[in-house]
Specification:
This protein has 330 residues and is of the alpha/beta class. It is 42% helix and 14% strand. Strand 1, helix 3 and strand 2 form a beta-alpha-beta unit. The chain binds S-adenosylmethionine (SAM), 6-(5-methyl-2-OXO-imidazolidin-4-yl)-hexanoic acid and iron/sulfur cluster (SF4).
């Protein structure tokens, strides 16, 4: 297996991205096979526990209070509602349950309630992930003590393009929270969004930031912008789907041992495009009817697609190996 690198230069990454498509995909697939069983996909299910009225101004997001979207804000969900959704996700085959909240950063009281949710979800035998915005050191320590498995915090795009997408926080704010998470030993889920009008160089620079973190994020979500009416990015020229595959393939080469997640945007993708992404090294998806505020790819269509591609999802595999009762994750 190749050595993990953290010293990628921008031009090296741009050269990878610019290769003939077949060369890039062949290289990505070889790297993928050297580190993973290429016929197995990890399923994470998302639940938005607090919807809308967010003070941040992220141009892509339906939940910012600064944009006029159709979304109705909702208060933090009750513990039992969250646990019921987690039970359903587990029954459907998910191994990780991810909670999202439309916060800039949580208060300590809000964190108390999220911690109760994390403890309840862990007790169901699911891996836990939360995305709550920026955190202080003390909050990170509390999440660690609660047994949180993953924290999702995306860099979203390149340092150069960031200011055109988000103005209420800086790239450095983002990096600071990532450092706190990694230093505390919580596994990191960190990626970005493609198709926001960024250049290939921006995509390369995002991947450079991710790959040159002190440790590669254990999960790397590659989202395709879901264009939401009323957000500033609504109507952006769509990204060439093959450029999306190129970027995902390059993420696989740079972070060979990470789970690269084909994330938001699958509902809008054809099966052939998803199949190319799985070949290029995607080995995780969001599974379930909803992402946070928008529809995800239909679960029945997903199951059929996995079947057609001979892809096993992780829980199926674990149950075959260890039996249905023993496939506790975590
Ligand atoms: N408020 C927290 C934060 O921003 O860190 C957590 C929730 S936020 C919705 C989580 C991530 O969802 C964002 O960082 C962004 O990468 C992704 N996201 C949000 N809206 C999206 C959209 N319309 N299309 C694709 N990805 C999106
Ligand atoms: C991530 O990278 N993508 C997810 C999750 N982490 C939190 C969110 C996707 C959101 C898509 C738009 C929506 O449903 O609002
Ligand atoms: Fe708020 Fe997160 Fe949406 Fe930005 S991405 S507006 S921080 S919910």
């Amino acid at each position: 297996m190749s050595q993990l690198r953290h010293d990628w230069s921008l031009s090296e990454i741009e050269d990878l991205l610019a290769q003939p498509f077949n060369d890039l995909l062949f290289q990505a697939h070889q790297v993928y096979r050297a580190h993973f069983d290429p016929n197995r996909v990890q399923l994470s299910t998302l639940l938005n526990i607090k919807t809308g009225a967010c003070p941040e101004d992220c141009s892509y997001c339906a939940q910012s209070a600064r944009h006029s979207t159709q979304l109705a804000p909702e208060r933090l969900l009750a513990l039992e509602t969250v646990l019921e959704k987690a039970r359903q996700a587990k029954a459907q085959g998910a191994t990780r349950f991810c909670l999202g909240a439309a916060w800039r950063s949580p208060t300590d009281k809000q964190l108390d309630r999220v911690i109760a949710m994390i403890e309840g979800i862990r007790a169901l035998g699911l891996e836990t992930c939360v995305t709550l915005g920026m955190l202080t050191d003390a909050q990170v320590q509390r999440l660690k003590a609660a047994g949180l498995d993953y924290y999702n915090h995306n860099l979203d795009t390149s340092p150069a393009f960031y200011g055109q997408v988000i103005r209420t926080r800086t790239y450095q704010d983002r990096l600071d929270t990532l450092a706190r998470i990694q230093q505390a030993g919580i596994r990191l889920c960190c990626g970005g969004i493609l198709g926001m009008g960024e250049s290939r160089r921006d995509r390369a620079a995002l991947l450079q930031q991710l790959a040159n973190l002190p440790q590669h994020p254990e999960s790397v979500p590659i989202n395709l912008l879901v264009q939401v009416e009323g957000t500033p990015l609504y109507g952006t020229d769509p990204l060439d789907p093959l450029e999306f595959v190129r970027t995902l393939a390059t993420a696989r080469i740079l972070m060979p041992a990470s789970h690269v997640r084909l994330s938001a945007g699958r509902a809008q993708m054809r099966d052939e495009l998803q199949a190319l992404c799985f070949f290029a090294g995607a080995n995780s998806v969001f599974y379930g009817e909803r992402l946070l505020t928008t529809d995800n790819a239909d679960s029945q269509r997903d199951r059929q697609l996995f079947e057609r591609l001979g892809l096993q999802f992780e829980r199926q595999f674990l149950e075959e190996v260890r039996g249905p009762r023993a496939c506790h994750q975590g």
